[in-house]
Every structure is written in C-alpha cells, then in structure tokens.
Amino acid sequence: MIQINPLTLKKLRRFRSIKRGFWSFIILLLLYCFSLAGELFVNKRALLVSYKGDFYFPTYGDQIRGKQFGLDYDYETDYRTLKKKFEQENLGNWVIMPIIPYDPYEMDYTQDESTGFSPPSWETRHFCGTDKTERDVFARLLYGFRIAMTFSLGYLFLTYLIAVAAGSVMGYLGGKTDMLGLRLVEIWANVPFLYMVIILVSVMPGWWGVGWQVSSLLFIMVLFSWTGMTYYIRAAVYKEKARDYVSAAKVIGAGPLRIIFRHLLPNVISTLVTFAPFTIAAAISSITALDFLGYGLPPPTPSWGELLKQAVGNLKTAPWIVISTVTALVLTLTLVTFVGEAVREAFDPKKFSTYE
Amino acid sequence: MNDMKKIKFFVSPLLASGIVFFLGCENPKLKQPRESSTEQTEGKSDHSDQVDQEFTRELAREFAREFVQEFAKQMKQKGFVLDANESLKMSDNPSLKTGLLDTNGKPHPLLSHCSEDVLEFYQKNADCFSILSPEQIPEDLNWQDGSNEKEFSSPDAKRGGTFHAYMRDFPRTLRTIGPDANGGFRSYLLDNNVIGLTHAHPNSDGYYPGVANQWAVGKDGRTVYFRLDPNARFSDGNLVKASDYFFFFYFMRSKHIQAPWYNDYYGKDKFQQVTLYDEQTLSITFYKAKPDIVERVSIRPKPEHFYSELGGEYLTKYQWDPEPTTGAYVALPENVDKGKSVTLVRQDDWWANDKAFFRNRFNPDQIKVSVIRDNDKAFEIFLKGQIDAFGLAKTEFWYEKLKNEHPLVKNGYMTKVTFFNQAPPPSYALRINSQKAPLDNLDLRIGFHHAMNFDLVLERIFRRDFVRMNTVADGFGERSHPNLKAREFSVDKAVESFAKAGYSKRGKDGILINERGEKLSIEVMTGYKHFEDVLVVLKEEAKKAGLEIKLKVLEPTAAWKMANEKNHQVIFSAFGTFVELFPRFWEPFHSDNAYQENGDLKYQKNGELKPGITTKTSTNNFTQTAVRDLDHLINQYREEEDLGKITAMAHRLSKMIHDHAVWVPAWKKPWLRVGHWSWLHFPDDWGPKESTDYEEFQVFWIDTLEKKKILDAMEKGEPVSAQPTVREYTKYKK
Predict the structure, then answer these.
(1) CATH 3.10.105.10 region(s) of chain B?
(2) How distant is the Cα of A116 from the closest Cα of chain B, in angstroms?
(3) pLDDT tens for residues B96-109?
(4) Which of A79, B376, B409, B709 is most deeply packed, by most CB within 10 A?
C-alpha cells in the first residue's frame, strides 16, 4: 500500500483551504453522484405506484407491463398516462413520478402537434425543451454527463496507468532504456490524436455491441494520448531518484520495484494529481468533439456532442438546445478547471520547499 | 504546459471538425448515363434524399451484367440459325453486302468523309453497320411525328437574363464521357441540354420529335426508323448527318473513351444494327422488342466532324474542349473560370428556336453555375439573391429556415412552390435479409413489418409531407399495383405474428423471448446518418411489440459493403430510380441474384431451397429473396413484349413480394419543393408531370424588368405582393 507522504497530506489540506477549488470539487462530486442516481430524478418510470393496495417500485429492476395495472397493453407501462388515469378514476390508486418524468431515449410524442423541437415548458416538465425527435434535452444532458464523466474517469485511470509505468521505468532505469523509450514515446506522440481516433473508430467492426464500441473507443483514445504524461513522470522520477533517501533505500538493499512503489511514487503522485483535472477536462471535450463529428458513441446513446450537433444545425429554430448544452459544458469544464487550478496552487513546490 | 494542453484540446476538435466538414462535403452527385436507369433524379440541393451513389453505380454494373446474360440466353434459343445465315453472308466481302463500300472498294458517298480508322471499324463490324438504298425502307411503316402531343412550355416565356445556379464542386472535365465525366455538372452539358432523336414526353406515354422529325417502329418491334430534321445543326454550324449515328457507336464502343459501362451498354449485344438509307433516314435495331423501344434507341448524335477519329489522347485533348452540341447552351472554354464557375451561353440562332416542343424553353441567355461547396452557405447566398432558385425538399428548409412568414416570402420577393409530380421515387425501404436467422421465418418477418411505426415517423418527423410507400414498384403509373397497401403498425398483429414464429413470452426487459430463451433482437443497419432520427423512432416504437432493434449507423461505403456481402440482417437504404415505363424485379428479387446455383437448381422438388447452396455476393438482391414461382414470373416478365401483359405481371409480382414480406416500404415524396426569386417565372402548370428537378425541362424564364422592380422594392422595403407568395400545384396530385 502506498503511504501518502506527509508533504502530500499537507498539500491536500492546503487544497481544502482554497475555497473556490474545493467547493467546485464538492459540486462536481455531487453532480456526478446525482447523475449516477439519475434514474430517481429523471426517468419515465415511476418512483412508486400504489395499485389496489400493492406498492410497486418500478425505477430499478424488471419492466412492469401495462396489464399489471389493468391497462390494455402488454408492453412497458406508460406511467405518465397511468398517473392521469388514476387521478381521473379516483379509486385510491396513485403514482409518484420523478421530478422530470422522461428518460433520454423516449420520444414524447404525446403532445398534439409536436413535431420535434418543443420549447422549454414548466407544464410538460421539459425544463430544457426537447430535441429533434422530442426527447427531453435535460434527460439527455444528465445521462450524457454521466457517460462523459465515467468515460473521463476511465480515461484518466488508464492513461495514468500506462504513463506511470512507462515513465517510471524510463526514469528509474535511465541510460539506454530511457533514451530508446523516450524516442519511441516521441514518435508515438507525433501521431495525430483525433485523426487516428476517427480513422480507427470508422473501421471498427460494426457487429460489436454498444458496450464493446464504447470501451474500444476508450481504449483507442487512451492508446493515442498516454504519451503526454510520461515526460512528467519520467522527469519527476529522475529528480527523486537522485535524492538521498533513494540512495539510503538502495544501501539498505531495497530492490527497484520496492523503491519505485514505496519511495518514488508517493513523491511523484503530486505531479499526477496536478494534471488530473485537466486530463478530465480534455477527455470531456474530446468525447464531445468526437460525438459532434459522429465518430463517438453509437446512437441513440445520450451524448453532449450529439446534442451540440443538433444545436448547431438548428440555432434559430431550437435555441434552447444550444443554450442548455453549452451552459452545461461550460459549467462542467469551469468547475473542473477551478479544481485543477486549486490543485496546482496547493501542490506548488515553491510553497513547500524543504532543505535536506 | 497546462495552457498548452488546454489550447491543444480546444484547437484540435476545431481543427478536426474543419477537416471532417471538408471531407464530408458531399461529392457532386454522380450521374450515370440516363440510359442506365440508375440516375438519381432528385433535386440538386435535396440532401435529404441523397441516394447512395455507390448503390447506383452498382446497379448500373448489375444492369449491364444482366444484359450480357440475357443476350447469351437469347443466342442459345434462337440465335443459332441467325448465326448460320450471317456467316453465309459474311463469306464474301461483307462490306460489299452491307453497302459500306461500292464495287470499286471506295466508301459509300454517305461515308466519304470518314477517316480510315472509322471506316475500318465499320467494316470490321459489318454485321452492325449497313447502308441500304432509300427504296429499301419498308413502305407500310406507321410514321409518327408527335403532333398529337401537347407542348409543355409557356407561350408567355421571354428570352433573356442570366440564370444563376450552383454546384457543389467544380467539374473535373467538360467531357460528357470518360473518367470523371459523370459529375453533377454533366446535366447542364448533356442531360438537360443535348437533343436526341426523340424524347419521351414528360406528360404522357408518347414521344416528341427531337433531331428526328419522324419515327416509325418496324414490324419486328425492335427496329425503329428515323427521319432527321433537315435543319438540325450542331452549335458549330455543321448539320447533323445520318452518319453521325454510325459514328456514335464507333465512339461509344471505343476503348479510348475509357468508359466500360458505355462500351458495354452500346455494344453489339444490344444495339444490333444501324442502317442508313439516305442523308435523312436511318434505322436502329435493338436486340429485343420492348414497349418503350423508341426511347431506348433514341440516342444523341456524336459530331463526327469534330472528332474525326479517336486515339489515345482523347481524354486529355477534350478535357476542357467541349464537343459541339445540338442543345441550346454551349460551354465555351473562355467562359470557364477554373475552380469558380462555368457560364453556359445560349445560342442566339439555335436551330430549334422555333421548333415545336423546344420553343419557349431554354430561355435565359446565360446560365452561370458557380461553385458553392456547402449547402447551408448556398442557402444563405440564395437569400442574398445571388442564386435564383433553391431546392427546399428538406423539412427544416421549408418550415423553419424559409418560413411562409419570412420577410422575403411575405413581401413577395421570393416564391415558394410545391409541385406535385409523378415519377418513381427513390426506393426507401427496410430490406430484410431473409437468409439470416431468425428472419428466415415468414411469420417473424410479417411481425417485423407490423412493428415498424412508419405512421409516427411520417406524422412527426416529416409532418405528413411524405406519404407511405406501399409497394416495391410505386410511381410507375399503370404498372404500379392499384390497391396494395403496406402493412400498418400494429402491436397486436406484430405480437401475434412473433408468437407464431415462436417468440411468445416477454422477457424481463419487455423484449420477447422464445422457448430456448433467445431474445427477439434484430440489427438494423444504415449508411444514412441524416435518417438516424427516423430509425431511433422506429427502434423505440418497436419495443412496444417486444422487438429489440440494434441500430448501426455506418459510413455509406461500409454499409454498402456489408449489404453487398449479404452480412446484414436488415438494411435501411434506397436505390435511385428514374422515369421508366415499367419497374425492374430481376435485380432485387430474382434468386439468381441471391444464390450462385442457377435457375431452379437451387430448389428442391417442393420448392424449398436446397441445403448448402452458396450465397451470391455483390448483387442487389439485398433481401436474399429466392422463391421459385417468383423466379418463373420474373423470367416471363422479362421476356414479355406486350404492355398489357407486362402491367398485369407487374401487379402480380408486387403482390407476391408483398406476401413474401422482405421489404418494408418506407416513404415517398409526392412533390418537388423549390424556392425561387419571384422574377423567375414558370408555366401555368409549373412544369411537366414527370419533372424531378426545376432545371430539368428548362421551361422557366427570367423577367429582367421585374427583377429590377423587385430589387428596387426591396431596397425601399416595399412589398411587391400583398400575400406571401406560396404556391401549390396540385394538377398531378394523386
């Protein structure tokens, strides 16, 4: 287990004291948790149905068919209509719907005359309006956020895993390994990232399932963007390696693995943490850009890029899409950047120079 | 460093989007020759109906292949005797017999101007080219001149003005044949311009005279006699000669034009003989009697005096040097602004100025076609008045971007037109691969039909502007089935059918499962990104019937490849169609295009397919239809020469394919929608019935005085019309 360096702890404490960054971090965390529990707030399935004295909790779990509630169809219950029906019948049955009673895939063609692009409305609970096929923009934003954030976290983890491995090997072993490794990294880094992703995504076998497609998109993106971090890790490892405590560890007889994991990485971790928020921001914008171009997540997965694409094509006809999507994007990226700045400030070595 | 990173990630998406937009700019519409039946005759700026070019090209190839096979069959059946006769004739000098040379070995006077190479070609193919004396024209011919047809232009039309149009890409050549020649610009040079022997009348099943004043179909039903108009001239002043029709085949069969499709289409197999009688009279013999024989052999003259003969330098020599034309407009090299625009100039003394069916058409003095690479940009330029007309087929253009309340329309500066036409629509449909399990089950396919909620798509996405396509052969007039209807969306019927196919229980997620616990999940693939929303609606609605649809939106070429390899379960696609007398069934529904085993070899005695037969790839039978009775009827249909019987058979075929349930018809667009500046005028009916594009028949004209008036009024902010100028022409509405 990696022990957190007391210096790093100090830095984390300092981060907490930077109010703007810290609160941004908390808000971001809450937003992510909110999106993870999105089914409870934004969903076409009811939270709770009371029918003939029995309670049903349709949110998670199996689909409940219309016939279960005395409706004449066998497919999934339309809870919004059910609610109206129960209210009209007044037989003591009731339905509690989430705040926004729509899911990101469902087309709300229930309003008369709706032909796509309904403006925001309190009455229909489309707080951010609807898109071209009458899907709720807020629902798509929320679930898109969830996917984008999860995707970015996976991206962060994987890129850092590769970067740390390659960086520490090069930095610790040095010499020819370093020279050769660095050249390879430089060559790899010069492969244009987005174009390669676009090319690879477009030749991806079509018979792969959605899950496979998303994870392979993640792997492809990681494959072409881990190089940036290796430089920093390598440099940091190089610097730390020359310190006395490493020599001391060597003298005691510690092997290279032990030195890297027990001694070097805890000291290098501050570098990683400083970069993490910016990597997240980069990942969010990349996945959005790819979706925008049509090379990202397979349809009809909710995604911000897809929303932006619709928005750009219909700036005048459906301004609510561009407004809500851009607001959400700017807000998220700003929060992430605030966190990043605070982390950087907290981890600034100038504040904590120690003499040995 | 962080800043660098940030910049990188802000800039790279931008850059990438730039590049991708550039790459994504649609290529100019690739046009196959008119004869190919593959031409996509949609409005120019009509994105929404872009039919995959790859599909159309493949159809052309397939069509060519079909002819070769059919010819071989014909030869087997009756050709042998003919061959023997032919070879008897050939035993002495064939050129003598066919009149190409006189007894002194000199060329016939009609061919006296021919170069050696050309003459040699005629002699080598003496069975195709012959010269007979005028007395040998059969006497009992029923000569037609189209005088019973009505003209479709307006007598009010005025000459003058410049018509501003746009193209997506600068033409790569001004040749009309050979590599790169079938770009979108070709229609200005050839299809909408050059005059052929006769033309199919766009308002009736008849013909109107072109370069030929009169024509007659011979007794054999496959030879058509033509009498040329003595006034017919090329744009360089030379008269059109009968021998230009000999030369046409020399040209089209030459390897130097590097156009294998034409080589094949105009090959001996189909155009079996051309005979000249005198300066004005010729006949062309097709390989088979067809009800639309006149249209099939009405070729366009090739100016022999311009080419003299063809050599290896053909492609480069004529790259920017267009051939003289019988049409009204000429593209002169000096009017080509490379990369920017091409200006076509109207010949003032055009030979057909006062000719019936051509007068009052081709009215603007000039047509300036400029390059605008982006459709949305073109629309903005249209609003500025620098383009005269713009296709408004896309719902968003018609309803949102150029609303009836738009100041330009409200004040009458601009006119919005809906014209109901009658032409075969591109065949938008879900094509079910009946070879792939579980779709090999008829009940399951019928269930799939009933699970597709096209009603909702039409109502909500297309706002009821499009109508449901009902059969595999809609838009062919009499030949279309009169009352067959596409299967409607019905959850009950779908569930019932799925139950018959073994999927009777609902799983936990509401999707049907069968006894083995397999989910009813079908993959629907498409290459049309712009119809993603349609498929999303279908997918969500199909869930109600317990059907899970996995959507796959691919690049057009990738989708095409998969369908070609018959690896799809269901593909959403369309083939281009053009105005034709009767629909085709062989390419998409004959079993010879589904399996490699020929004819009935692939069937067992009871009509079922034998096990272990080999799939045939790269054909247009995307549904892998193989039904013995259907095969037999299609064979008969292709052999049939009587229009009445063809009609009856077409109806039966449509019904049989409907019963086989492999083709879910999607929608068709019963109209053309165009926005144009109000100084552009159209005839009272707006255009002929079969118009598929506002420029196709060149019946509009520009009122230059009115243009000035409108521009003045715009400057002052005064309306020129009290009502919004929105017109609907329903004369041909069905």
Answers:
(1) 429-668
(2) 7
(3) 567 788 777 788 88
(4) A79
